[in-house]
Amino acid sequence: KITNKEKREGSPSPPGLILLFYLVFYLFLAGMFVLTMYIMLLTLDDYKPTWQDRLATPGMMIRPKGDQLEITFSVSETESWDGLIQNLNTFLSPYNDSYQVQTNDNCPPDQYFIQEDSAEVNLPSLSLSLFLKPRSCQFNRTMLEECSGISDRFYGYSSGQPCILIKLNRVIGMLPGKDGQSPYVTCGAKREDSDSMGQLAYYPPNGTFNLMYYPYYGKKAQVNYTQPLVAVKFLNASMNTDINVECKINSNTLIEGTERDKFAGRVSFKLRINSK
């Protein structure tokens, strides 16, 4: 005969059964989660986002990036703008002319660089994509002229004429102009600061994002893509005062920001240049 004590010793105790149940239960949940994520990833395209309907107008950003889009420095204090100079140098290093000549094409301006034979989406294999990646157009650092950091390695900060670089966020497949008209940037001050901002200079001329840099085919497909830039130089901004600046994109295809998204196609920042 098997005693009650032997039965208790040979079978799991109630706490053991509970732990076994939860172990199996959570392993099942983890398996279901992994399977669901795997199936979802199969529906994604490696080269193009599935949904782009909310990206009618891209956002904009500036360099150097100050705290909360504020750029404050003192002309007479080198340490106040030294970090800004380093930020610009690091950001512009991929734009050096020697590097651009090696990696990118010299494209005809004022027309889209459409590459229908390139691997934009839905390639049959990764190995094939390596041979069909879209090429990119050169954006040489010297195109920024006085704001390139070449003729003036301090980008105007040492003389109270700072340069601000503006870039348009990347959107795959975006065509930001038609009829050969490239989008361009304009900057202005808020009404109360209009007298303080002074004259501006744009580089490249007229502050254009040339059409030859579009469309963008994606980071994975277009690995050498160099984002076009516009530099704005403040030639005679007032000292020791806050200047609220807004820069926006002007295009015959991109719509202006709406009440729901006031910052689509524009960026606002505060500039303060102290004399001491």
From TrEMBL:
Q: Do you know which NCBIfam families this protein is assigned to?
A: Na_K_ATPase_bet
A GO term from the CC aspect: sodium:potassium-exchanging ATPase complex
Q: Which InterPro entries match?
A: Na/K_ATPase_sub_beta, Na/K_ATPase_sub_beta_sf
Keyword set for this entry? Cell membrane, Disulfide bond, Glycoprotein, Ion transport, Membrane, Potassium, Potassium transport, Signal-anchor, Sodium, Sodium transport, Sodium/potassium transport, Transmembrane, Transmembrane helix, Transport
**Per its record, what are the GO molecular function terms?**
ATPase activator activity
Protein name (record): Sodium/potassium-transporting ATPase subunit beta
Family under the similarity heading: Belongs to the X(+)/potassium ATPases subunit beta family.
Q: How does it sit in the membrane?
A: Single-pass type II membrane protein
Q: Which domain of life is it from?
A: Eukaryota
Coarsely, its chief localization is membrane
User: Which species expresses this protein natively?
Assistant: Labrus bergylta
Give the location in the cell: Cell membrane; Membrane
Question: What does the record give as the function of this protein?
Answer: This is the non-catalytic component of the active enzyme, which catalyzes the hydrolysis of ATP coupled with the exchange of Na(+) and K(+) ions across the plasma membrane.
From the UniProt record, give one GO term of the biological process aspect.
Answer: potassium ion import across plasma membrane
- The membrane-spanning stretches of this chain are 20-44
